[in-house]
Amino acid sequence: MVKSRKISILLAVAMLVSIMIPTTAFAKLYGDVNDDGKVNSTDAVALKRYVLRSGISINTDNADLNEDGRVNSTDLGILKRYILKEIDTLPYKN
Question: Which residues belong to the signal peptide in this entry (predicted)?
Fold first, then answer.
């Protein structure tokens, strides 16, 4: 009786812990500034509007394509080159 109670408590604790631990980790997708899971011209338009201070909100972590700590026109140029397949990988290191 005591043994089955201990097992029940351990199972309940294990279930609670499993709920608290995230089951999926999302990898950073450089260039996906609108968080739709793709890198395409829609991201370039959003990044351009952000750089021009149009009041748009973007994922700035995914937008810093040269990892210099800033999101600016350099990142926009890199994104355009990536979309046009002029460069192969992001983040871009030159």
Answer: 1-27
